[in-house]
Amino acid sequence: MKTIFNHKSIRKYKSTPIDDAVLEKILLAGTRASNTGNMQIYSIIVTRNDEVRKQLWECHFKQNMVQQAPVHITFCADINRFNKWCEQNNTEPGYDNFLWLYNATIDAVLASQNVSLEAEKHGLGICYLGTTTYMADKIIDILNLPKGVVPVTSIVVGYPDETPELTDRLPLEGIIHYEKYSDYNNQKISEIHNEKENSELSKKLIEENGTENLAQIFTAKRYKKDDNIHFSKVFLNTLLKQGFMNH
Questions:
Q1: Is the pLDDT confidence value at 49 over 80?
Q2: Three-state secondary structure along the chain?
Q3: What is the 3-state secondary structure (H, E, C) of 97-129?
Q4: Which of 99, 150, 188, 196 registers the highest number of CB atoms within 10 A of its CB?
Q5: Are residues 27 and 78 in the same domain?
């Protein structure tokens, strides 16, 4: 519980290597995550080679932490292994569709959270890389991912070289619904976001970005509509090439 409530995203790392036994324990924790039908339709790619991490750094918009952290881990939705097992046992798999992409994605993300928590328990820092889905087609080439395997998310892992403050979170009433979903009116939206919008960090970000408010930073600066549409098309094409979404 201490690990959960003290989670911070680390973006600066020491070059100190991670002991093999520690890394194995971290990865084992990932395999103990809940998953669909105990099929474990995901794969985890651990990258420590400097040259390969440099290639991944270029994919992840050249974020320095990708080269600083000694370990890069890519979590993939993977129907390839299970399909081969089924075919080897004289039965036809039916997993090349949206439902099983969704299931495999959930499996991969659950495994990634277990890995992250175990890493932090060992004094390591982690940071998720949302650029994984943006650049999935390039990552597939770098990691030699076969048909039926697609990257879902990635983390960098290493010993922290910074001590950031805890980031804010919305209050429980902004996230939790009891019994049934209770939709938000304008007043409730304002109440939920009040603390976040008026924090010193948010005020600084608004000034730096030259926007009227925090919401505009997300829509006009960070995650713009044109970019979202572009990367959605690229990712969909990648999924089709990798054998998903066929039915």
A1: yes
A2: CHHHHCCCECCCECCCCCCHHHHHHHHHHHHCCCCHHHCCCEEEEEECCHHHHHHHHHHCCCCCHHHHCCEEEEEEEECHHHHHHHHHCCCCCCCCCHHHHHHHHHHHHHHHHHHHHHHHHCCCEEEEECHHHHCHHHHHHHCCCCCCEEEEEEEEEECECCCCCCCCCCCHHHHCCCCCCCCCCHHHHHHHHHHHHCCHHHHHHHHHHCCCCHHHHHHHHHCCHHHHHHHHHHHHHHHHHCCCCCC
A3: CHHHHHHHHHHHHHHHHHHHHHHHHCCCEEEEE
A4: 150
A5: yes
- The predicted model scores a pTM of 0.95
114 in the same domain as 209: no
* Residues 37, 157: Cα–Cα separation, whole Å: 29
Q: Looking at the domain assignment, is residue 246 inside a domain?
A: no
Would the pLDDT of 234 be above 90? yes
Please give the pLDDT value at position 241: 95
Q: Which amino acid is at 144?
A: N
